[in-house]
Amino acid sequence: MLMAYNEQQQIFLPYQYSREALQRCRQQMKFYCPQCQQPVQLKIGKYNIPHFAHIATNSCIQLFAEGESKLHLQGKIQLFEWLKNLGHTVKLEPFLRKLSQRPDMLLIKEHKQIAIEFQCSTISHEKWLLRTSGYEKNCIQPLWLFQTPQKQTTQGIQKISISPIMQKVINTTALGLSYLVTYDANTSRFIYWANLLYVHGHTFIGKVQELTIHKQHFPFYEPKTITKEEFHFYWQLYKKYCKQFVYQRLFHSKNGVQDAFLRSSYELGFALTRMPDYVGVPVKNGEAIPMFSIEWQTILHYYCRRLQLAPHELDERNIRLFLSHHHIELTIQAVQAIKNYGMMLAKRDEKDNRFPDIYEQVYAHLFAIDTIY
């Protein structure tokens, strides 16, 4: 823990003192857990950040997270001081008795409370959900800020791996564009993973940008939409991963003619080495269908042929039957993904040919929202 009470019941923050001063304080003062009121010991290592820990023989019913990493303690201090310097009212490690929870920070802003959790270690979905719902039920907005994965060090447009738990805190701009903000306590920088385009599983394509803590405001900035020229690079990367998937499926599928993707491709006369440009198209809500777009869209076209309907002519009942038959979870987002795909194909077939190629149409659908609505 980063704070404790001294004998005068004053908050003591050891990171504000030199190690020499802390050594004197440790000899002259006693410290107590702000939660259980039991004595705690001041830890002053040569390399670790000074902090408090419960004495082994004592137990605290609602323990602080003992054994926090140096990176976690360092990040909490940096973020706490950053918010204070911006003029915000913020508390460090406050105990919320009603919830029996202790966020890393609690920010009070215009009669609204925001619980900020700086997450450095792995957290289970169940624990994340429990803590998040606890805040929300008590009208506290949770803000999860994950430590930037160390392998994510470069900027620019690139393939990004986002863990399932981090996917749960992806934000959207006012225009509905997906982005994620992480914080790197090693470099004191916020990392924006902007204009996220879902590919498959944990894989996204995005534009990575960084901002030093001294230039960051709160609430966070909203990233700008990528240009059509930047999307061209997105498109090249996306098609590359689609092609890799097709080749892998072709040479490694164990289901043979029972493989729905390969069977549908054969029945439709699609050459796996040269798939039509209108399959393997990213669409909004596409992450709700846990298959590569080139796979589910090929199977969908075969399904439509059997019904003698175009994709945009499918009603909700037909869409739900399709999802159910292929064991895809029936969600509003999954249904909408198929509707979005049909909508794009319908626009592509319009006589006025407003979108001369599928690349431009996908850009307009995903990023140039104001041009199509």
Widest sheet: strand ordering: 10-14-13-12-11
What average pLDDT do the residues reach? 87
- Which percent band covers the strand fraction? 15-25%
* Count of DSSP H/I helices: 10
The end-to-end span amounts to 51 Å
Count of β-strands: 14
Morphology? elongated
Structural class: alpha+beta
String of helices and strands: EEHEEEHEEEHEEHEEEEHHHHHH
Total individual domains: 4
Radius of gyration: 26 Å
**Low-confidence stretches at least 5 residues in length (pLDDT < 50)?**
351-355
Helical percentage: 25-40%
Biggest sheet architecture: 5 strands, antiparallel
InterPro entries: CoiA-like_N (IPR057253), CoiA_nuc (IPR010330), Competence-induced_CoiA (IPR021176)
Domain Competence protein CoiA nuclease-like: 68-218
Organism: Lysinibacillus zambalensis
Protein name: Competence protein CoiA family protein
Topology:
Layout: E1 4-5, E2 11-12, H1 19-28, E3 31-32, E4 39-43, E5 51-54, H2 70-85, E6 89-92, E7 105-109, E8 112-119, H3 125-137, E9 140-146, E10 156-161, H4 164-167, E11 171-172, E12 178-184, E13 189-200, E14 203-212, H5 228-252, H6 260-268, H7 293-307, H8 316-325, H9 332-348, H10 358-366
Parallel strand pairs: 8-9
Antiparallel strand pairs: 1-2, 3-4, 4-5, 6-7, 7-8, 10-14, 11-12, 12-13, 13-14
Helix pairs in contact: 6-7, 8-9
Protein name: Competence protein CoiA family protein
Pfam families: CoiA_N, CoiA_nuc
Organism: Lysinibacillus zambalensis
What does this structure look like?
The strands form four sheets. The chain has a five-stranded antiparallel sheet, covered by helices on one side. The radius of gyration is 26 Å and the shape is elongated. The protein is an alpha+beta fold and 373 residues long. Helix 6 crosses helix 7 (293-307). The model is unreliable at 351-355 (pLDDT under 50). A hairpin with a 5-residue loop joins strand 11 and strand 12. Helices cover 34% and strands 20% of the residues. The two termini are 51 Å apart. The protein folds into four domains: 4-54, no CATH class; 70-146, Trna Endonuclease, Chain: A, domain 1; 156-225, no CATH class; 230-371, no CATH class. It is built from ten helices and 14 strands.
